[in-house]
Write a structure and sequence with these properties.
about 140 residues, mainly beta, Immunoglobulin-like, 6-stranded antiparallel beta sheet, 1 helix
Length: about 140
């Protein structure tokens, strides 16, 4: 019985050490809709979706049209700011790679952040969506 308790304690210790590494904490894709289009935003470390963190973040955005197909030819820009400091807005352009629009954004302090995505479709229409996160 004593060996079992020691083994279980050791397993909990190892799982706590693994979870302490911020780059490997699993996150989820954030989604929102506008006029029938779906925008999915995720923070990535390689192919893994992670939680946003203080500092430089790799961001991927997927845009899906009203028929459920990914849109590869939109002009996408991302701006981000802290709601408490709306005059300090940073912007990032994206590149389309691996079925997503990718960029890096620098969330340089902990707190709440607003991420606004603007995308121009091939017909010239512009759509805007907003995500709010906290790190």
């Amino acid at each position: 019985m004593k060996k079992l308790i020691i083994l279980i304690s050791f397993m909990f210790l190892l799982s706590g050490i693994a979870a302490a590494d911020n780059d490997h904490v699993l996150g989820k894709e954030l989604t929102t809709k506008v006029d029938g289009y779906t925008a999915g935003l995720s923070f990535r470390h390689g192919k893994h979706i992670i939680m946003p963190h203080e500092g430089e973040n790799n961001v991927s955005l997927v845009i899906i049209d009203t028929s459920g197909k990914k849109i590869p030819d939109a002009k996408v820009s991302i701006s981000y700011s802290m709601p408490d400091m709306p005059k300090f807005v940073s912007k990032a352009d994206t590149t389309y790679l691996d079925d997503a629009y990718n960029t890096k954004i620098d969330l340089n302090m902990k707190g709440s952040w607003d991420i606004e995505v603007s995308f121009r479709l091939s017909d010239g229409k512009i759509k805007k969506v907003k995500f709010s996160i906290k790190i």
